[in-house]
Amino acid sequence: MITTEFDYIVIGGGSAGGVVASRLSEDANISVCLIEAGKTDNSVFIHAPAGVAAMVPNGIHSWHYDTVPQEGFKDGRKSFQPRGKTLGGSSSINAMMYIRGNQWDYDNWAALGNEGWSFDEVLPYFKKAEHNETFTHDPYHGTSGPLNVTELKKPSPFNDLFLEACQLNGIPYNRDINGEQQVGCRLNQVTQKNGERCSTAKAYITPNLNRANLTVITQAHVKRIILKDNTATGISVLHKGRSIDIHARKEVILSAGAYGSPQILELSGIGSKHHLKRLGIPLQHELPGVGENLQDHITAVPVYRSKRKSGTFGVSVQGGLDILKGMSDWSRKRDGIITSNFAESVAFVQMDPDEPGADIEFEFLPGIVDDHARKQHLGHGYCLHATLLRPKSIGSVHCKSADPLEPPLIDPNFFNNEEDLDRLVKGLQLALEILESKPFDAVKGKMLHQLDRHNLQQLKDYCRERADTEYHPVGTCKMGPDSDPMAVVDARLRVKGINALRVIDASIMPSLISGNTNAPSILIGEKGADLIRQA
Predict the structure, then answer these.
(1) Which end of the chain is more exposed for a tag (fewer CB within 10 A), N or C?
(2) Residues 6 or more apart from 417 whose CB is under 8 A from it?
(3) Under 8 Å CB-to-CB from 15, ≥6 apart: which residues?
(4) What value, to the nearest 5°, has the Cα angle with vertex 422 and ends 420 and 423?
(5) For residue 229, which phi and psi values (nearest 5 degrees)?
(6) Which residues in 352-381 are b (16+ Cβ under 10 Å) and which e?
(7) Are 98 and 127 a contacting pair, CB within 8 Å?
(8) CA-CA distance, 7 to 221, in Å (whole number)?
(9) What is the largest CA-CA distance in the chain?
């Protein structure tokens, strides 16, 4: 029998929601209910870091979304959008890269009218979350938080080639890309602990499941938020084939992510009156910004075959034997190649001097990745993601119907702004220059898809044919001041015009972070929990 009344209800047990539920339940005098649509995270695919290679392409523990046809892509190709559907959310299926973005990103949020969100003001929350095993006495890092951040246990020797090639091409080695300066290259720090993934479920939820005041309900799909007199009083959920209403004495917190949060708001009658009328959902409160302002990183990936099998993941007898040994190493001592996050090295580059910081991110993988690893190729290789960090194309996400089980209509609007294509091509050119540099001469085989870095039209065509998401959607419940008519929440993450309802996840970002979004989402969870406690 499910208890049906709590002080706080948190919708979504992902990168932010798990943090919020954990922090609020530290107070034994309040009760917290965490609702997650997915299953618990007790899967070897989640805890073994290399399991990401199986989860993302195959829809394991994932919302297996596709976008609407993209006009900027060849033949209206759809973008593939996997999002975490389990405790931990996307922190349970991502590549575990610990990256915060650029300090300017947060200062810009504050400059847009969001008081309390400058870098100096959010840094304490990054540190509060973090237990960094490397930077133990550092003004930019924490050592007592629940989120373990560490170095890769067994990185491929191919990373040395990449880092050397970066430096030959003017990209300096940077010991800490999350410190004073972002530009530079290094092996990735990862959210792992003792050779296992450290998701927000592992860091924040699992250690606290014995709290009597914390209830976690999985496989529960939220139908809508219950509103009375413009106040959120609870939620209606589908659980084990039954519809249940759960009531909140204090607040409802929406942490369902950049796609789920606007969808649930619209299902609840909060959003654009035009969209809601089309859906046949009665308008409860008009907020035209709900589902708008979708921003996402787009990436193009040149792939080389390797003359050397050792040190790369691949489809071969040797590759199979390496995996079998790796599985044995991991099961016995949590070591070996199964601790790989695949995206083992990173580089941040500022190509446009007019930008406030890095505008291209490179992620090096010692394996062949084609179409999100959904297309397998015999043999061994390596690849380099060239990711546009500051895209100008803006999209949207809206309900397709009033059915809460139907996937939303996702439209990132990739390459709607032609400048994004031109800037990504420049990043792709530099990626090719790095991969064609001398350090790779001894291992470089043929390209999987032949590219000439001097042929701009060919590179543009390649991007339209093959570029896709880097899995970082944000912005669809935008934070902003009252002067911004498209803002959905204020700087305290309260939904405008609705009492006792907040959105706390990546959807509140007014602009996309120039880096991976998991660490910033955890930051939002930490700060959001404090804002609730201050109320």
Answers:
(1) N
(2) 391, 392, 393
(3) 84, 88, 89, 90, 91, 200, 505, 506, 518, 521, 522, 525
(4) 65
(5) 55, 50
(6) eeebebbbbbbbbbbbbbbebbeeeeebbb
(7) no
(8) 20
(9) 70
Query: What count of other Cβ atoms lies within 10 Å of the Cβ of residue 403?
Result: 11
Catalytic residues: 472
The full length of the chain comes to 535
CB 348, CB 177: distance < 8 Å: yes
256: three-class secondary structure by DSSP: coil
> Which pair of tokens denotes residue 109?
């949020």
Tokens 């009344």 -> residue: 5
DSSP code string of 362-420 = EEEESB---TTTTS--BEEEEEEEEEESS----BEEE-SSS-TTSPPEEE--TTSSHHH
Pair of tokens at residue 126: 């990054």
Buried b (16+ CB within 10 A) or exposed e, 168-203: ebebeebebbbbebbebbbbbbbbbbebbbbbbbbb
Tokens 């046949």 — which residue?
A: 280
C-alpha dist (Å) from residue 37 to 2, 95, 221, 235, 269: 16, 22, 5, 13, 21
Q: Where are the alpha helices (DSSP H) in 112-239?
A: 119-129, 158-168, 200
Tokens 């208890």 belong to 3
Please tell me the distance from the alpha carbon of residue 290 to that of residue 272, in angstroms, as a whole number: 7
Residue-wise pLDDT tens for the chain (535 aa)?
Answer: 567 899 999 999 999 999 999 999 999 999 999 999 999 999 999 999 999 999 999 989 999 999 999 999 999 999 999 999 999 999 999 999 999 999 999 999 999 999 999 999 999 999 999 999 999 999 999 999 999 999 999 999 999 999 999 999 999 999 999 999 999 999 999 999 999 999 999 999 999 999 999 999 999 999 999 999 999 999 999 998 999 999 999 999 999 999 999 999 999 999 999 999 999 999 999 999 999 999 999 999 999 999 999 999 999 999 999 999 999 999 999 999 999 999 999 999 999 999 999 999 999 999 999 999 999 999 999 999 999 999 999 999 999 999 999 999 999 999 999 999 999 999 999 999 999 999 999 999 999 999 999 999 999 999 999 999 999 999 999 999 999 999 999 999 999 999 999 999 999 999 999 999 999 999 999 999 999 999 8
